[in-house]
Amino acid sequence: MTMPAQPHSTDGSMYEHIGGAVVVSAVVDRLYTLIDEDVLLRRYFARVDMTRQKRHMVALLSQVLGGPRQYKGRDLAEAHRSLGISGEHYEQVGNYLLAALLIVQAPHDVIDAVTEVLAGQRDQIVGASGPSHTGDGGSGTAAVVWPPEVG
């Protein structure tokens, strides 16, 4: 998985700036709580070992934020290929991740960097195979909505 170069604050990495492992773990816990509460998304995790899943996500998010490069999971495209993840569902998970970061008061540079990574990884995760429930007409052009529209 190719990650974009991450900007660093004068005090170190974004990972260090938000509080390191403890905060990243809290963000991941919040993310999966939000996903579990979403009836459209929880089905993707029905048969998943959530302890292992959270461990992978902590490693991945830590790496994205310039922390330890410990992600040793499968390639994102391979891991998600058979799930048939729709653009709409991908964006919702992305929005939940951004919300979890905002809850811990992550600064805007962190939010912007994660948003960029989410946009860059979309094509690897939104699936062409598996059950299709696209909210973007299958065009593959929808993007993470941030900030969310207030309606």
Overview in brief:
This protein is mainly alpha-helical and 151 residues long. It has a single domain (17-125), classed as Orthogonal Bundle (Globin-like).
What do you see in this structure?
- This protein is mainly α and 151 residues long.
- It has one domain (17-125): Globins (Globin-like), CATH 1.10.490.10.
- 51% of the residues lie in helices and 0% in strands.
- It has helices spanning 14-18, 20-36, 50-64, 76-80, 87-103, 108-125.
- Helix 2 (20-36) crosses helix 3 (50-64) and helix 2 crosses helix 5 (87-103).
- The chain starts with 13 loop residues before the first helix and ends in a 26-residue tail after the last helix.
- Mean pLDDT is 79; it is low at 1-10 and 130-151.
What would CATH call the homologous superfamily? Globins
Which secondary-structure class do the elements indicate?
Answer: mainly alpha
CATH class: Mainly Alpha
**Termini separation:** 36 Å
Give the helix tally: 6
Using DSSP, what is the number of strands?
0
Shape label? globular
Tags for this model:
151 residues, mainly alpha, Globin-like, 6 helices, disordered N terminus, disordered C terminus
Write the layout of secondary structure elements.
Blueprint: H1 14-18, H2 20-36, H3 50-64, H4 76-80, H5 87-103, H6 108-125
